[in-house]
Design a protein that fits this description.
Low-confidence stretches: none
Helix content: 40-55%
Strand order of the largest sheet: 3-2-1-4
CATH topology of the largest domain: Rossmann fold
Strand content: 5-15%
Number of domains: 2
CATH superfamily of the largest domain: HUPs
Distance between the termini: 38 Å
């Protein structure tokens, strides 16, 4: 990895705040110093805690850190939420990074990502983005081990957390107030229940809150009713549907692929 990074000289690392991109930024920052610039896009689709994590680690590590607005919410192709929404999101991000200084754009994509449908990889190809973890044959479990080795145990154990726009079912327009609601619900549930997995999804037929099986089975009828009412109240504040379902977690259940 260090040989690859030194060969590239000046790099621009796209960092979301998750374990993959944070680990890559740590490696690049320590290997290249000021020749590595870390970029974090601030957006309605990015949780505040992710932005705060990037800011705190950047200060501790002495990163050359820049916060940018990738402008995806000004892109109607993104806001309309088609099946390839991630292509339009990543295109906006990489276009923004390409306009900032010279250097090669790096992403935290890893070997495990290649087996999934990832339209963002097409956008990366269009902007000549390099994926160091892929080039070095590194998967998610290895990234977590590397992050532990670098001294960031808490980051190493972060659960997968796709952008908040992934909670909006394909075909529904993405609105900032929806993402505020989604994040608020998930934070409340995290704080109270400490679930292994939680997603608040907005679907055509209403709102679905998904919890891992263990957490879901621990809820009584009374607590389920209480949470349903709480979430309905939060939804009403944002003018959203008060049809609330609480059900088992299913990865990517808001995504509907069409052609």
């Amino acid at each position: 990895m260090n040989l690859l990074l030194h060969r590239l000289h000046h790099v621009k690392v796209a960092v979301s705040g998750g374990v993959d991109s944070m680990t890559l930024a740590l490696l690049a920052g320590r290997a290249l110093g000021r020749q590595a610039t870390i970029f974090h896009a601030v957006s309605h689709a990015v949780p505040d805690d992710s932005t705060n994590r990037v800011r705190e680690v950047g200060k501790h590590e002495g990163w050359q850190l820049e916060f940018v607005d990738a402008g995806e919410f000004q892109n109607s192709n993104y806001v309309s939420n088609p099946y390839n929404r991630c292509f339009h999101c990543k295109s906006s991000l990489y276009s923004t990074l390409a306009s900032h200084m010279e250097g090669t754009i790096l992403s935290g994509t890893n070997m495990d990502d290649l087996s999934d449908y990832r339209p963002g990889l097409k956008a990366a190809e269009n902007f000549d983005v390099i994926h160091p973890f892929v080039e070095c044959g590194i998967d998610k479990s290895a990234i977590r081990r590397i992050c532990h080795h670098l001294g960031y145990d808490e980051i190493a154990e972060l659960p997968a957390s796709p952008c908040l726009s992934s909670r909006i079912e394909t075909g529904l327009t993405i609105k900032p107030e929806q993402l505020v609601f989604v994040h608020r619900v998930e934070r409340k549930l995290h704080s109270a229940l400490k679930p292994k997995a939680v997603r608040c999804r907005i679907r055509h037929e209403g709102i679905a809150v998904e919890l891992d099986t263990e957490t879901l089975s621990s809820l009584t009828k009374d607590s389920t009713r209480l949470w349903t009412n709480t979430i309905a109240h939060l939804a009403a504040q944002q003018g959203l549907s008060n049809t609330i379902l609480i059900e088992p977690y299913r990865m990517g259940s808001a995504f509907v692929q069409t052609t």
